[in-house]
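User: These chains co-purify. Model them together.
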Amino acid sequence: MAVSGSSSLALALLAGPSQAGSWCAAVGLPSLGLVAAADVGVALERFPLVARPGDEWPAVVAALVDAVDIVLVHLPRHVRTGDARRLVAKARDRGAVLVTTGGSTAFAADVRLSVSGCTWEGLGRGHGRLRARRIDVVATGRGAAARDRRVSLWLPAASGGVEECLRDPLAMPQQIAQTLG
Amino acid sequence: MSTRTLVVWCPDWPVTAAGFSADEPVAVFANRVVACSAAARAGGVRRGLRRRQAEARCPGLQLVAHDPDGEARAFEPVVAAVEAFCPRLEIVRAGVCAVATRGPSRYFGGDDTLAAKVTEAVAHVGGRAGIAEGPFAAELAARAGRVIPEGQTPAFLSTFSVDVLERPELADLLHRLGIRTLGSFAALPPASVLARFGADGLRAHRLASGDDERPLAARISPPELDVTTEFDPPAERVETAVFAARRLAHQLCDELSARGLALSCLRVEAETSHGETLVRRWRLERATPLALAERVRWQLDGWLSDANPHAPTAGLTLLRVAPEEVLPDEGRQLGFWGGDRALDDRAARALLHVQGLLGPEAVTTAVPAGGRGPAEQVQLVPWGDAPPVLCGSSAAMPSQIRKEREVWPGRVPAPSPATVYGNPMRAEVVDQHGQPVTVSGRGSASAEPARVSIDGGPWTDVVAWAGPWPVDERWWDPHAHRRRARWQVATADGTAHLLAVEGGRWSVEAAYD
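Assistant: Joint model of the two components:
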């Protein structure tokens, strides 16, 4: 699964499984907002971070995919196709989910999430504070997820979690809707 | 009968280790006071007081943060001084070590001479030596600076209050029953004590009667379970050795628990390529792999530190961790994480593997910390290291974050940004006439922000903003003092950033993306 344009969207994907007791890990994301992660529902004690894996990142991700249910990876600019294919095969074999951020398209992601627009609520001209954000997510993909789907979400919602703006369950692939809760 | 034991006790060791003398009013605290100097005690400071209470009782009190690693490291020279008299020494905890006196006493011509010699050797840190039967009585004797003649230990103990057993609940109950001294507690028949107070009560009863905490018969000679690792090339850094020690500790704990044994005394041996060796014994209450690895770290830190005159001259080639004394496991071993063990074990193994690839510091985990900015609210600690004192149990983490929020007025309000820059990026903010926006000393802005450029990027229009929110932090400390004003700024492209202006310079602290 590839996510572009929003770190909080990537964190929101981890929240559901993490709450259910799964382990998640983040690789190559030194500036991830961990308070935001905790707020959206990621259990920090089951969320190890490898901030700067350097050139060893394929080995690190391979080790983590073996044991952790969801690995969030920020891809470097150049990714060898062989590395990408090996990691995807390993993740599929183990039943783990790779969530990638960053520009490289070397990974043949089953689902790609991107942000087509977002607006913040609660902030005025010189007053108020950021409260909630409405974000338009586009999901494209292969196989069952081939048709483009769009959904508008409150991320974060004013209450802190994630909420759907339009009550339309067909607007997203089923598994994403489930993951996002 | 217990073995005659000499205990060296350094009063208020955390204070001494922090480099203060007893005449200065100093308290070592970790949320609450852990130890205080004699001067502070005279001022009314006690262990367990909250920081504000302690400061109220003793104005001018200096506060030092509790640093168990540093204390253990500073204790190493004292241990070396005592070891010059008697080998086979056990470190009970930082500030207290014990040794069996039978051989050394004969060699030096009696207990009194031995105690005097040892006291003299540790006088520079204010240490005292005492001899009695069993380590418990000997520590009390050391506090009094006395040598208890053979056979008089029960009489010596009988006058102490039951509080010295360090079992607050039991002591409280005994007080209410009218049993105030160890003597009257020891006078109770052991069978009744066992029936009324359980196994732990019986252990306390044995202590009070001057017997050793563990009956001799329960001591099992340890099987050959030494675990060894060799370093090739020699390990120059403590971290490398500690990382290997963690693996050894896991291995040893697994071996012992497979045999139904629990560790009560640990021996750590290290050897350098020049043939120098250091052997230390550590007494342990609860032998988790983490606790074992910690002892190894303390020992090596102390040995390899530049301050130590007997520091080795070459890298480590061998590290051996061996059980010195074991007991039947009565279920004292705690689960490391709780929850789904198989899953957690697998994750822990994978993380160890990654640590092996990149070094132990590369894998971190976040623990809540106090602060106003988004970067200060979490602290990253290497995976597997004990989290800082601020954090309670790991399960309590979200509530811990919530609690932290309550005690930091002026913090950046929720929602928290999803990207927090470790090194804040440069930014420029101008008003509608293209003049840079500034914030005055009184916290008012020179103009409304109109356009923003982030990290030298293109200018974008500001559609909404809030601020300035002035923060004046640590004004009491000239080195850590920071004065800045934060802004939340939303731009036309739909993104929002947390900006800060400090000394006229703008930076991006975080992005709400």
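Confidence is low (pLDDT under 50) at residues 215-219, 331-339, 386-397 of chain B.
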